[in-house]
Amino acid sequence: MRRIPAEKIAHAVEELCFTAAYHLPGDVRDSLAAAAERELSPLGSSILSRLLENAEIASKKRLPICQDTGFAVFFVEIGEQVRIAGGDLTGAITEGTRRGYKKGYLRKSIVDDPLFNRVNTGDNTPPIIHLKIQPGDRLTITLAPKGGGSENMSAVRMLTPAEGRQGVIDFVVNTVVGAGGNTCPPTIVGVGIGGTFEKATLLAKEALLRPVSEKNPDKQYAELEEEILKGINASGVGPQGLGGVTTALAVHILSHPCHIASLPVAVNLNCHAARHASITL
Description:
The protein has helices spanning about 5-20, 25-40, 40-60, 90-105, 150, 165-180, 195-205, 220-235; strands at about 1-5, 75-80, 80-85, 130-135, 140-145, 155-160, 185-195, 250-260, 265-270, 275-280. By secondary structure, the chain is of the alpha/beta class. It has two domains: about 1-20 and about 65-145, no CATH class; about 150-275, CATH 3.30.1330. The strands form three sheets. A four-stranded mixed beta sheet has the order 4-2-5-10, covered by helices on one side. Helix 1 packs across helix 4. The longest helix has 20 residues, at about 40-60. The two termini are about 15 Å apart.
């Protein structure tokens, strides 16, 4: 059994808050640079260049890439041989989030009650924590801050199996195109297919963590991703919704077995500031 102090986890999470807010991942930055070179719209190309400039300034000056520093969403993989000492895992992650958002002067965006008491909690807590128990004695924590604009344009639909491949394509493309500039495109499009209602939406969000340059290991899904991406970029929505051929940088699909009567499909959109950071303890 390996003991990891709760304070060590809280400190690591605090640092993740800074890293995710200030530094755009290299794969996203490279994809934006490539898009700027191939963008046919002069305005679209200029916008993409400005996004890259913004990311560079944010990194050098340790400033948030975007004023919406997001809901703190964590994907956590904990080994079966790990024990948290001096506290609990949820408490440690929550405390790290509280410190990170306060010390980093990151915008606090969470309200205490979604409907009746929309009062800001003041420290961007509580976070959302998705937990997987794995073999071993390691703890891996990934923070993926999620802005409100792109999150609001996400969708889920329970297709019938008869709608099949084309039904999936139409739903995803229509969701992204219908969102227009509200998602601050170019976006990364996470798609979850299968499972149940709630599993599909989690798959869609988790799919956003895949590096932009990385192909889907399943050939059929890799081809589906390319077809959906072409359909989205043929729409003309373009960077920031102002026209062009770069509405999305990538489409990432995760799938899961499902019921014989079901074909759940979820779309979770991430703006161009596709922020995430990880640490393994």
